[in-house]
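Researcher: Let's do a round of design. I'm pasting the structure tokens now; please hold your answer until I've finished.
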């Protein structure tokens, strides 16, 4: 089953500081279960969670959807469908 993953890495780490994993079959309902920290980071970046949910409904949306590096905050955000 495909899943949406939102990973937040700090200090150039290889292990995420925060990971939110949501099965695509329930992503619309489960969006309320995404950690506030992850939602706050997406909001700060101007990324609309509802739009990500819409994109995830496409069968072509596999792999990394977005990878954002915030150098001043020393973090990287990776959003993917796996």
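Researcher: That's everything. Go ahead.
Model: Designed sequence:
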């Amino acid at each position: 089953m495909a899943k949406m993953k939102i990973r937040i890495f700090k200090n150039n780490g290889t292990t995420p500081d925060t990971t939110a994993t949501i099965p695509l079959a329930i992503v619309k309902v489960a969006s309320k279960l995404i950690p506030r920290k992850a939602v706050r980071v997406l909001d700060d970046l101007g990324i609309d969670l509802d739009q990500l949910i819409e994109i995830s409904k496409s069968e072509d949306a596999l792999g990394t959807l977005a990878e954002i590096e915030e150098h001043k905050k020393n973090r990287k955000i990776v959003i993917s469908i796996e």
